[in-house]
């Protein structure tokens, strides 16, 4: 009879699963020897719901966003990339602190990883707020206007330049994280939490690169008009 995989087995096979387990407070590290159903029963969590979330991680590629209007693209960016960051950044802070506390003595580079990630989060959180509260509402108003809007199109150029400079800074910090982690490759003695941290940081890098691409190379040129790309100088 086939043995049901443990929580540790699930994370080892697909490290991104750690995000789902942590969301439900299921301990895949110290309690990783339990099966999913046993752990869920003890935590009062529906195992079928957890399995559905794990299956969703392997869902197909996202819908085409290349032909969206500026308003639709802003909505898409908020509901995907912004939502992802709002959910993930706090979890990653806690995970980085946990891994540093346990493994920092043997792996001093984790100090730099934790500090660089903290700097990235400190930059990204106000950046998201400025987009959600200032720039994106301006873009929606411009896109919806049948008559000259109260927000002149030229007035979005300066906020966009600021956003692009902040994107550049985020890119530098992500590159530093990749260097500090040797390309997000965990060492041989890494535990499940250590591996989950590096997987999550690499996912953060990939998601942020796509997020920035959608804004710098699609959204901002569409808003500014032909020949008015979001230059930073």
Structural features, described:
It contains eight helices and no strands. With 233 residues, it is mostly helical. The chain has two domains: 7-56, no CATH class; 70-224. Helix 5 (70-103) packs antiparallel against helix 6 (109-144), helix 5 (70-103) packs antiparallel against helix 8 and helix 6 (109-144) packs antiparallel against helix 7. The radius of gyration is 21 Å and the shape is globular. The N and C termini lie far apart (66 Å). The model has no long low-confidence stretch (mean pLDDT 87).
Count of β-strands = 0
Going by helix content, strand content and strand pairing, the class is mainly alpha
How many distinct helices?
Answer: 8
How much strand content do the residues show? Answer: under 5%
Task: Give the helix level as a range of percent.
Answer: 55-70%
Form type:
globular
- Mean of residue pLDDT values: 87
The number of domains is 2
Low-confidence stretches: none
Radius of gyration: 21 Å
């Amino acid at each position: 009879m086939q043995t049901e995989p443990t929580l540790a087995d699930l994370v080892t096979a697909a490290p991104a699963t750690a995000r789902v387990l942590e969301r439900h407070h299921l301990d895949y590290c110290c309690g990783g020897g339990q099966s999913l159903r046993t752990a869920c029963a003890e935590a009062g969590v529906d195992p079928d719901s957890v399995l559905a979330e794990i299956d969703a991680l392997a869902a197909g590629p996202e819908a085409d966003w290349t032909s969206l209007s500026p308003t639709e693209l802003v909505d898409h960016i908020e509901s995907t990339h912004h939502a992802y960051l709002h959910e993930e950044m706090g979890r990653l802070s806690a995970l980085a602190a946990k891994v540093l506390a346990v493994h920092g003595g043997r792996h001093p580079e984790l100090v730099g990883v934790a500090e660089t990630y903290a700097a990235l989060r400190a930059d990204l959180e106000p950046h998201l707020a400025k987009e959600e509260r200032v720039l994106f509402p301006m873009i929606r108003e411009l896109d919806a206007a049948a008559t000259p809007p109260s927000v002149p199109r030229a007035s979005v150029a300066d906020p966009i330049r600021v956003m692009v400079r902040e994107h550049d800074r985020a890119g530098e910090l992500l590159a530093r994280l990749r260097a500090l982690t040797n390309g997000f490759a965990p060492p041989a003695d890494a535990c499940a939490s250590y591996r989950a941290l590096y997987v999550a940081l690499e996912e953060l890098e990939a998601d942020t690169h796509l997020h920035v691409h959608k804004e710098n190379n699609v959204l901002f040129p569409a808003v500014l008009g032909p020949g008015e790309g979001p230059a930073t100088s």
